[in-house]
Prior knowledge:
By secondary structure, the chain is an alpha/beta fold. Among the domains are: 403-600, Class I glutamine amidotransferase (GATase) domain (Rossmann fold); 614-667, Immunoglobulin-like. 29% of the residues lie in helices and 19% in strands. Strands 5-4-3-2-1-9-8-7-6 form a nine-stranded parallel sheet. It has a seven-stranded mixed sheet with strand order 12-11-13-14-21-20-19, with helices on both faces. A hairpin with a 4-residue loop joins β26 and β27 (649-651). Bound molecules: zinc ion (ZN).
Amino acid sequence: xxxxxxxxxxxxxxxxxxxxxxxxxxxxxxxxxxxxxxxxxxxxxxxxxxxxxxxxxxxxxxxxxxxxxxxxxxxxxxxxxxxxxxxxxxxxxxxxxxxxxxxxxxxxxxxxxxxxxxxxxxxxxxxxxxxxxxxxxxxxxxxxxxxxxxxxxxxxxxxxxxxxxxxxxxxxxxxxxxxxxxxxxxxxxxxxxxxxxxxxxxxxxxxxxxxxxxxxxxxxxxxxxxxxxxxxxxxxxxxxxxxxxxxxxxxxxxxxxxxxxxxxxxxxxxxxxxxxxxxxxxxxxxxxxxxxxxxxxxxxxxxxxxxxxxxxxxxxxxxxxxxxxxxxxxxxxxxxxxxxxxxxxxxxxxxxxxxxxxxxxxxxxxxxxxxxxxxxxxxxxxxxxxxxxxxxxxxxxxxxxxxxxxxxxxxxxxxxxxxxxxxxxxxxxxxxxxxxxxxxxxxxxxxxxxxxxxxxxxxxxxxxxxxxxxxxxxxxxxxxxxxxxxxxxxxxxxxxxxxxxxxxxxxxxxxxxxxxxxxxxxxxxxxxxxxxxxxxxxxxxxxxxxxxxxxxxxxxxxxxxxxxxxxxxxxxxxxxxxxxxxxxxxxxxxxxxxxxxxxxxxxxxxxxxxxxxxxxxxxxxxxxxxxxxxxxxxxxxxxxxxxxxxxxxxxxxxxxxxxxxxxxxxxxx
Length: 669
Ligand SMILES: [Zn+2]
């Protein structure tokens, strides 16, 4: 991503929602706009699912309604993030081209009548999506309400993998470009096993349903191919918008949340001017706020530290989880300001007015079914006022952390492959737990793509990075050589980019860095545990390893690796060290280990004695702002002084942050 040099789409922090006026009679629109003004809304995303209304038959456009709502919004001073509508092609296009519907791994072709019902490799969707993008760009690119472009919606959310014949041909072309020679592919995929050798690229299919385990190299490359196809789609739509309206920034809403990992977003960031993200809490998770913090930090890492936009979250319940809990009073404010604390300069929701009908009618909105005379809408108005008071924060950045935590979508895909040593090891599990331990300790962390520059970091955490970038070992060695600390976990650096094991003892990529050699994985029984000599407990996974240049800090006292090292540290001359943990430590033990590594690197919390508060600092040319969010039921002291912009009063060192409350201090006043 190149930092957007033009103006931010709004004065102050962007506040608003997806706005779907086509769901309502036009009489409602004036009321919508009046309520938006009351709530302080300054940006709405328009037209995301409107293709069917904009082009009811091929080449016949009905744009009058969009003209009218754009004018109405502009008169009210509300900016528009105008969408290209490719997330929901019209029925006529599906009927004319049923071959564009995606096909699953079992060969079942989906039916239209939902959304994202298209194969990303289909030339039909590409042609029609870029065609209507051009129509919209030419007609509205200079409308004064339009501030930015929103390409499609949540790319790959429902159609991330397509196994149709069109996709098969595109996959073969992609493989031909990648390998040139089919024997190079045979070597990469290990097709000598089970006699899977291909004589030509023409023989290759997507990894459709097989009798048993499919070839892992084929599956991993299919993930890469599919992700690349969405990157190409984004690039094609964005290219039209840039050609016609170079003055407008382009974004697409990512889905950095939970377990979604259909696209390697690092390949998309060069194609957008502003990074934006959708985030929905897993409502039943009591530490959902910690997952929110982790996801927001991942988004900031993708944005290269620049401000980004929270394009969607929910005012209260969603409608697609098993039990859709309503947000408690104050939770919407806390969630929103968590995102702002972690770099968002926009807070938007799905959606403005809760739908009366259709698939998401029980998904909350800024204006609920109950109407404006409701606690929800009053909270929406309060949030708008609070964000208005935080306008000065916009453009500042989250203070650079001294701790980096690495993640990688390709490693995630590879970790997900079948027939691994245990079903109990999940890719983001340890990354989230490490992030949570730092969060609880009040220590700031940057969550970065594994290919990122590590300069300036005193601690680098490498959790379950099963497939590591080939140069990572050298970059980690450089961190240790300059006195930094690196913590690598079990099941990291195991395979090359083709999912072939790096031989000679695990972890092949990091053996030398860590001074350990693992001869055998020793996963545990379901709910099993192993005791360590330092009194801690490991879960899920252990290893039979030997220290080869590393100091043994703890050994296994029972379990399948009894007697062998569990936790090691290889120290370097300049005070740096490479730590290795070979088991999934329980929560207190992991917190203690993180504390030990952070202390060894002399990294301090954001504020002294954070005491259970989530604390983040943003800094800019005009000063710094300290966000403190209390997720507990007790009032907690904050050891910092400043003007609290939320309550509008001075906060003195040691004053309390109310239970379930938030303060944002303008420091240095
Ligand atoms: Zn397809």
